[in-house]
Amino acid sequence: MSIVNQHTPGMAPLDYGVIIAYGLGMLAVGAYYARRTVSREDYLLGGRQMRSSFVGLSLFATLLSTITYLAMPGEVINKGPVILWTMVAIPIAYVVVGYLLIPRFMDLRVTSAYELLETRLGIQVRLLASIIFLATRLLWMALIIHLTADKIIVVMFGWDPKVIPYVSVVIGLVTVVYTSMGGLRAVVLTDVIQSLILLSGAILSIVVITSEMGGVSAWWPREWSPSWDAQPVFSWDPTTRATVLGSIVFMTVWWICTAGSDQMAIQRYLATRDAKAARRAFLVTGLANIIITLCLASLGFFQTHPELLAQGMTIDQDGDKLFPFFIVRFLRPGITGLVIAGLLAAAMSSLSSGINSASSVVSVDFVDRFRPPDRVDSDAAQMRRARLIAVVSGLAAVLLSTVMGGVTGNIMEVTVRTNHIFVAPLFGLFFMALFVPFATTVGTIVGAVAGCAVAVVIAYWDLITGGATLSFQWISLISLTVNMAVAIPLSAATYKPRTSS
Predict the structure, then answer these.
(1) What is the CATH number for 57?
(2) What tens digit of pLDDT does each residue of 128-176 get?
(3) How many CB atoms lie within 10 A of CB 291?
(4) Which of 18, 166, 343, 373 is 20 to 30 A from 193, comparing alpha carbons?
(5) Rounded distance, CA 331 to CA 455, Å?
(6) pTM to 2 decimals?
(7) Residues 271, 390: one domain?
(8) Contact 58, 191 (CB under 8 A)
(9) Is 455 a member of any domain?
(10) Is 375 within the bounds of a domain?
(11) How far apart (Å, rounded) are the C-alpha atoms in residues 322 and 296?
């Protein structure tokens, strides 16, 4: 039974109602917590007593984003299932992050993760880490806003691409409002709601496909598609787009680096009671990621039913557009609105977390650090300042989103080529501070700069040299390797042991 004959394509009034109700619900959460947040620690860390399950789902929703929600189905449909090997990275990262990194962070009563860098390596390293984080998150938030407007709203609603900047402003403003009002508690609760919407949207899509197309066997691919690239277990050719080993290493490095240096992640650990609770939160994040990855990867029924594509669409060229096309073209009224709300939820949860963590870093690492020591602001004044910084951060991301359309590649490639440039160098600063006893300021900074430079060269090799595109899977690993290869020997050469007086 073909679903084409059962549903009227497009958006129904019920779908618009669901989306509007979702937006109003997020604003209501922000308003609710705005009246119950009385100090900056409440605003930035939720009082350090938040539930592990909520924090874990919040981190899951934060790191997932619309990028993954759209990229995974398109990646599997267009490029093949080799990317599913990225799930192997999650248990590896859980052991490293949960038992080596989280206990070190939880021993420190800090608000910004980068405070500990100054204690060990000086103010220069702390400021460098804060600047790298802010640059990474602003680029990431801008990319999310642009992709949500360009790949979801405009495509699904059939609007003229000229309205993309206006859609970006609306998405950004709604998120800024509820985030700046309610702080981390609002962010976490909305993230939990958004996580459930994300999972529900993917599961409902699978249920609809299965029930209306005659069971799983009617849509599950039966053979390796010729449209999928040859993706071996391993290859020495740096232009081979993806391999099994590359997928595992790529995501292992990303998980460890992000969970071990990104303020968005560390801020979640610090919002829990202790290391055990923070470890449980990270476990919830990992399990939720495995579930959603399997669900999204399963949404590849156009592989076996290309006749359902719109005129002019192809699997090879339009992989990123197939899931949005399916949502609007085939899902029932109400379910379409729910899944679109899920896509918006993925964007807004990431934006809200980015805004809140940026507010933490600017407040603590810049304003507080350079404020006269004899000046003590009231809780109300600190809250107002944190909210103002959150608003400015969100507006900066919206402005930056207007230039993100110039980066080429599918959604996953665009993400890696913009966001992964700084991921490994930022973690390199923490690695040197936490695990290299002879680390020096100059060695750590020069290593980080070298790592960033190498990441840029690999990510944009085709633009720099005019040659072939190098595999995105090696950006973070090679960047981290070069970072350590420079930072550790240079630190050893410039280290001066303290002598007792």
Answers:
(1) 1.20.1730.10
(2) 999 999 988 888 888 888 888 887 788 777 788 888 888 888 888 887 8
(3) 14
(4) 166
(5) 41
(6) 0.84
(7) yes
(8) yes
(9) yes
(10) yes
(11) 12
